[in-house]
Amino acid sequence: MKKKKIRKRLEKAAKARQMCRIFTAGDSEEASRFLPLAISEELVYMIKDGDPEAYGYSVRSLDVIEKVKIEKEEEAPAEMAEKHASAAPELDIADWPSVFRSLGKYGRVIIVESEKLAKKDERYAVGKIEKIGRRQVTIRYYGPDTVWENKRWKVPYEHITWVTADSRYTEVLNQYVPEADRAAAAQIDREEADAGEPEISAGPKEA
């Protein structure tokens, strides 16, 4: 499907609060189900399987979507879809920098993926937004042992295809993020915004 048609179909589903099957090149057999919430020129904001408690809220690049199929209305109860949509965090999805600025205010653990780098080792990161630049974002890894790692992932926006927040997995990790880190992220975000700087920093600066 052409990108224009994909966007129009997603817009229709979002307006009607209908679930979609979204096909990408990485799908081995069956496409994943998503409830689209909003669409911009390049991105779609959605909930996998319409289940935010398990999968959280995601923003995905339209570039990796090859086909969209809207499910029948009875397969996606409108009242439940509306409830999930109304509870979704407010995100600016104009572009990837806007998405990360929105998420950076919360100081929470997120998942950043690059399906375009799937054949390389570093194709995804679980951690906190540390720095938002004009061309790339810096993510600080949060390890499985619930401590900050020295490792950072500096990923150009052109490589990012999927960002997830508030999933069951990230919420477990968020329980171990010190409150001071979240407070610092919010404070740094406000200071940078007030100063009108071209970049926004969030999270701990120490290595």
Compressed to H and E, one letter per element, the order equals HEEEHEEHHEEEEEHHE
Q: Segments where pLDDT lies below 50 for 5+ residues?
A: 186-207
Alpha-carbon distance between the two ends? 45 Å
| Shape type | globular
Major sheet details: 11 strands, antiparallel
The helix content, as a percent range, equals 25-40%
Tell me the fraction of residues in β-strands, as a range: 25-35%
Gyration radius, to the nearest Å? 17 Å
Query: How many strand elements?
Result: 11
Number of helices: 6
Judged by helices, strands and strand pairing, the structural class is: alpha+beta
Please, what is the average pLDDT? 79
Task: Record the SSE blueprint.
Blueprint: H1 3-16, E1 20-24, E2 32-39, E3 43-48, H2 52-55, E4 57-61, E5 65-70, H3 78-87, H4 96-104, E6 110-113, E7 124-132, E8 136-142, E9 148-156, E10 162-165, H5 168-174, H6 179-195, E11 200-201
Antiparallel strand pairs: 1-2, 1-5, 2-3, 3-4, 4-10, 6-7, 6-10, 7-8, 7-11, 8-9
